Amino acid sequence: MNSGIKEMQAPIHTLPQYPEFKHIRQFWMPKRKRVAVKVVAGDFYVSCQDEVICTVLGSCVSTCIRDVKTGVGGINHFLLPDADCDILSSSNRYGVFAMEQLINSIIKYGGRRENFEIKVVGGGNMMAGPNDIGLRNIEFVEQFLKTEGLAVSARDVGGLQARKIQYIAKTGQLMVQKLKDSNNARTMALELENQRNIQQQANDDIELFD
User: Per-residue confidence at 20, pLDDT binned at 50, 70, 90?
Assistant: First the structure.
């Protein structure tokens, strides 16, 4: 009887992870027949494995970067927390930190800037109003990449809908699903909570750079 139960259990699917990403849980995605991970707002993930990196974006932006020769790559997921456009503001320091985290980690594990393929996703105007933080996120990322001399090969940005994305760094395949309006409120609520947390950190004088 016990042996029968064991035979019915699904195999455990895991792949090696770089040390700093072991806190991100892997799970099996039957539709893709691959191991997958989910990246939440404020986090990032880098891999050289044939795994799916998933996230959900509203006003937030994810930059998907990979080295086309080594297959090392990943994504970040961030939201600029305020309307201050000063380059030294907590908003832009947070954005720069998010971008540098991803780029530096890819380079750490063998990627080279000259081999980067970059795709930008997200930045929806979730409130459909004049305070378009999604547009600010898009403008920030594209200006950052331009300043760094890095070209964007593909983008799916703006609009009024949240997005669910799946990215395979090893191959560069990016899959984007536009979500129904009913999901926008929940996505926006999560982003607003993330924004409040970032602003609280800024108020507490937490330094984002080493």
Answer: very high
